[in-house]
Structure formats: C-alpha cells, structure tokens
Design goal:
heterodimer, A: 341 residues, mainly alpha, MetI-like fold, two-stranded antiparallel ribbon, 16 helices, globular, B: 289 residues, 14 helices, 0% strand
Chain lengths: 341, 289
C-alpha cells in the first residue's frame, strides 16, 4: 500500500496539494513504506521497550480508550448472530445463526428505509458535493480581498452550530407561520405544512444540508486554488483563452485531486446520512420518505428493545459503507490515478 | 490587462450572488433573533421575519428566570470543560507517541486509531456497552466515549512531527526524561496547535446532544441542547394537537427562539476570534499526509 499520486504529474507542485486532504488519516496509514528509520537496524521489542518505556506508558490511557470504546463495540456486533438479553452479557447469550439477518431481509420496512437511505445519499452527493466547488470558484473570481474574506467568514458559520439549533431553525422557518410560508402566502398560494409532508422531506433535508456544509466545504478547494501555478493562467491568456476557458482548462484540472479525494470520502459516507438531523426533524407523517436505516435501527433497537435485530441491520450498513469506500478508492486509482491509499 | 465586457458583467453578477449567499446564510439567525424579541401575536400571525414586531424582553426574562434552563446551561459548561480536558490529555499523549518516527510498533498504533475512522461498532453495541459499564445517567457517558477524535489526533501528530528534533535531543542529553521533554519542551512549543485542538473539541462537546439523549434520563443532568430538543419536540406535539394546543405551541415558539439565541450566543461571541484557528487546523490536517 502506498499513496498513489497522479502518475501524470510527478512534479511536486501538484502532488503536495491538499489531495491528501481531510484524509490525513488515510495518507498516514498509507505511508507505511517510509516509516522504518533508515540506516539503523530495527531494535528487538525488548530493547525498544527498555529504551522507550516512558513513551509506551504515555500510550496506555488512550489505548485503553480505543480498546474499550471503539474495539469492544466492534466485537459487540456478534449479538447480531446471538440472542441478547438486556442486562446480560454484552456479547449475548447463545448463537442463533443468521436468524436476524433473514429477519431484516424479509422485512418490507427495512427495504423501504434502505431505499430512502440510497435516495437521500444520492441526492446529497448530487447537490451537496458540488456546491462548495461552485462557491469556491465564485469566490476565486472576487477581486476585493475584504469582500472575499467577509463572504468566506460568514459562510463558515453554520458549521459551528449544534444540529439541535439547525433543527429548531428549520422547524421555525418551515412552520405555518414561518418565513417560507409567508412567501408562499405573499404569492397567493395555500400555506404548506412542510414538516408534515413526506413529499417535501427530501427537499428540506438536502437544502439544509447544503446550507450547513457549503461554506466550510470551500476551505480545501480554496487552498487548492491558491496552489495552482499562476504561469499556467498566463500561458492560457496568451493562447487567447478567456476567463471561462481558463476556469475550464486550468482551474478545474488544478483542483481535480482535491475533488476526487473528497468525492471518495463522500461516497464512503454515503450510507451514513445525517442521522441526527433526521432524528430531530422527522415524524411519523414523514416516515415514508424520511426514515433511513439509521433511524429505523434506532427505533427498532432502542425504542422496541430488539437489540440483536437492530445490531444485524447496523452491521449490514457498516459493511456496505466499508465496501463503498474501498471500491470508490479502487476505481479512482484505476481510472484517474488518484486514491486515498 | 483589460477585462472583457462579459467578464465585468460577470463580476457584478458574481458579487450579487455572493451577497445572496451571505443573506441566506444569515437569515435563519436574524429570524430567530427577531422572533425572540417579538410579541406572541405577531409570530402567530406569521408576520415576523427580520424585524421584531411588538418588541419586548418578557420572554428573555421568562427563560432566564427558569432554573431548569440555567441548570442545563451549567451542565453543558461542565461537560464541555471535563470532556475537553480528558480529550486533550488522551489526544496529546497518543499523538506525541505516534509522532516519534523511531518507536517500535508505531505503525500498529497508527493503524489502531485510523481503522476506527472507517469502521465502528455502531449504535446498538455502543449502547449496550455503555449501559453494561454502568455509565448511564452519569457525566462519564458524555465525556468518555468520544474522547479521541482521530482527525484531531492526526492533526496533532502532524504538528509534532514538524517540530525540530534537535531541541528534544538536546534536552535528552541534558538528562530530561521523556515526560520532562513533553511537558517542558514540546508542549510550550505547541501552544498554537493546543489552542486549536481545545477549540475543536470544546465546540464539538458544546454542540453535542445525541450522547446525552441516549444515556441521560434525569432532567437535572440534561445539557442545554437536550433542554432545547425537548422544547422543540414538545412544541411540535402541541401544534399537532390542533386548536386546543394552539396557545401552548405559541408560547413554545417564542421561548424556543430565546433558548436558541441563548444557546448559540457563546459560539457567536467567540466565532470571529476562533474561526481562523479552525481553518488553519483543517489545513494543518490536510497538507501533512
């Protein structure tokens, strides 16, 4: 495993860009190759512990955290295949095989929420992913530095809000007395109780998603934009390219690695739609479109206490997520030569 | 170089579009603020948008006189402080160790952390674990389970890796222990990244609600996000009751606005000062692989 840089551009300028992006993580994992200290023989475990024991003691507490709060729950997924009793062992009581898996495969509600999850994930990808790119390109054309700063700074603001506040704002804005219905009334139409209408849920979800993420999402793109070699623009101008052509042939290729990295990450989190937001703004009336896998398993598990059944669904979702990110990465490595690892 | 006419037109349109973006971003805030100062009848009639109508501060007095609200607020402060302190302790020590290139098992330690970014136990096993550890209805259910954010961890690791190693080597020769080096050499040099990390964590914990929603069911333990969430949920039940619940819904919508303003206020106040730290933190995490 090694970090695949764009094979077409071995020059540092492009490769060092924020293509390793938010995924500092991925890259860190990827660089296994250059980790071993060169020119020094590897110490045996015993010698390293004697030499570095103080460093190792520092790691104990955080390591305990990872084991208890991250890896134990992973192992706890076995309750998807075992009968579980509240108050009993966290790993369940006895094996029941694939009973719970069969149960959700035969559950029509499951397939409904599965479809909703895919739809919402796909719509987010279509609308929320390109939005920051467009905003970054528009900001890039601004000549007045203060204006650019001003727009940028304000557009980050929603990122810092609690999802509870966002839900509260949505419910206020879309209520019968809210601003949106004031506009609806002003143009002479009948007010719509948006939050009670399943046909409106997706629009509400996606537009608020864009509102929340668009500004913050520009940060990495704007950084990538500043790294584009200015001489490329000059060359394009000499060749007679206008600003639009320059955007098309210089700017967009320049931020392509960033776009691909973020696209892979987005695809990887495709199934993990904004569960907390949905939990706050949906209601039984909007279940037909709003209920997603995560909210369904929340209700099944924690409201109806079918822990094993819910764990089976959760595991299914996690495995799809992992598969998605692995395949997106593999495809992108084949096709465009950029990948996370 | 002179711009073409088309491009100058574009510049103007662009400016207008961006102002539109700013307006849309800010509108919900301004609307909530306007509502928080407005009279009940005006909100109910659907007339309040940007300007408060029937200006009054009664609702503020009402909410600020509510003991439950202040207790929730206090809980949020307490949870945020404790959780951030724990998070910083764990993140700093782990990041410091995995930033040491020569240490045996480094790859394994990094792998252990990074793997959790891609795969996690999921809601149910986590819930079962926290319950069986007996953390339900205690501050620990809030402050422990998310004590390390792997993203923050990697940002810190990247920062530590960039510190000049000569200083540490010199300190080692002077006979300082590893702990001494960390405390007296590395941390004082890392004030910038520490400040950024504290902000990252503090904002996350201040805003979080789901953990509390799952594991706390005693009102005196609720953070302010849960207080607000219950107001919202309560209001929507009241309005769905129809005419009978109308009054109740109305009061709640007014109170809701005030509670929202008071909850966001600390963030809005520090926002202008902290947002560039966030941006630099994100950049730090991204540029260094």
């Amino acid at each position: 495993m090694s970090l695949h840089e764009p094979t077409t551009a071995p020059d540092g300028a492009r490769a060092t860009g924020p293509e390793a992006a938010t995924s500092a993580a991925l890259a860190a994992k990827a660089r296994k190759g250059d980790r071993a200290p060169k020119g020094r023989a590897k110490l045996s475990w015993r010698k390293s512990i004697r030499r570095d024991w103080q460093l190792y003691t520092l790691v104990l507490l955080p390591l305990a955290f990872f084991v208890i709060f991250r890896y134990l729950p992973m192992a706890g997924n076995v309750i998807a295949f075992r009968r579980f009793q509240p108050g009993g062992s966290i790993f369940g009581e006895e094996w029941v095989g694939l009973r719970y898996v069969e149960m959700f495969l035969n559950d029509p509600t499951f397939w409904n929420v599965f479809g909703n999850t895919l739809t919402i994930g796909l719509l987010s990808l279509i609308f929320a992913f390109p939005a920051p790119i467009i905003l970054a390109l528009l900001l890039n054309e601004v000549r007045t530095r203060y204006f650019k700063r001003f727009v940028q700074t304000l557009s980050y603001l929603p990122h810092f809000l609690s999802i509870v506040i966002i839900a509260g704002m949505l419910l206020q804005l879309l209520s019968l007395e809210g601003t949106v219905n004031q506009i609806v009334r002003a143009v002479g139409a009948e007010p719509v109780p948006f939050m009670q209408r399943p046909e409106w849920f997706r629009a509400v979800y996606i537009s608020s998603e864009v509102w929340q993420t668009v500004g913050w999402g520009t940060i990495l793109y704007l950084a990538a934009l500043t790294q584009i070699d200015q001489s490329l623009y000059e060359a394009a101008r000499i060749d007679g390219a206008n600003r639009w052509k320059q955007t098309l042939h210089v700017t967009l290729p320049g931020i392509r690695p960033t776009m691909i990295t973020l696209l892979i990450l987005n695809i990887g989190t495709f199934m993990a739609v904004g569960f907390e937001k949905i939990l706050l703004i949906y209601n039984p009336l909007t279940y037909p479109t709003a209920d997603v896998i995560a909210t369904y398993l929340y209700r099944v598990g924690l409201e109806s206490n079918n822990f094993s059944y819910a764990a089976a669904i959760g595991m299914f979702e996690a495995i799809i997520g992992l598969t998605l990110i692995l395949s997106a990465n593999a495809i992108s490595r084949r096709v465009v030569g950029t990948s996370l690892w | 170089m002179k711009d073409s006419r088309g491009y100058r037109v574009f510049q103007i349109v662009n400016g207008v579009v961006l102002l539109g973006v700013v307006f849309v971003t800010l509108y919900p805030f301004l609307n909530i603020i306007a509502q928080s100062f407005s009279g009940e009848t005006f909100i109910r009639a659907g007339q309040v948008n940007l300007v408060p109508l029937g200006f009054n501060t009664t609702t503020y007095q009402l909410v600020m006189g509510d003991e439950t609200f202040w207790r929730s607020y206090g809980n949020t402060v307490l949870y945020t402080v404790v959780a951030t302190a724990i998070a910083m302790l764990l993140t700093t020590t782990y990041a410091y160790v995995i930033s040491k290139k020569g240490i045996r098992g480094r790859g394994l330690l990094i792998g252990i952390a990074v793997f959790t970014m891609f795969f996690n136990g999921g809601l149910i096993p986590n819930y079962v674990l926290i319950s069986s550890l007996g953390l339900t209805n205690s501050i620990w259910a809030i402050v422990l389970p998310n004590a390390i954010s792997v993203f923050n961890l990697l940002v810190m690791k990247a920062f530590f890796e960039n510190l000049p190693s000569e200083l540490e080597e010199a300190a080692q020769i002077d006979g300082l222990s590893t702990y001494g080096i960390l405390l007296r050499i590395v941390l004082p040099l890392s004030k910038a990244v520490i400040a950024t990390m504290v902000l990252f964590y503090a904002v996350t914990f201040w805003n979080s609600w789901f953990q509390a929603f799952l594991y706390l069911n005693q009102q005196e333990l609720f953070p302010v996000t849960i207080y607000l969430r219950n107001l919202i949920a309560g209001a929507s039940t009241a309005s769905s009751l129809g005419s009978g619940g109308g009054d109740l819904a109305q009061v709640a919508s007014n109170v809701k606005a005030v509670t929202m303003v008071l909850t966001v206020l600390p963030i809005l106040c520090v926002y202008p000062f902290i947002q560039r730290y966030f941006v630099s933190g994100v950049m730090l995490g991204s540029v260094k692989g």
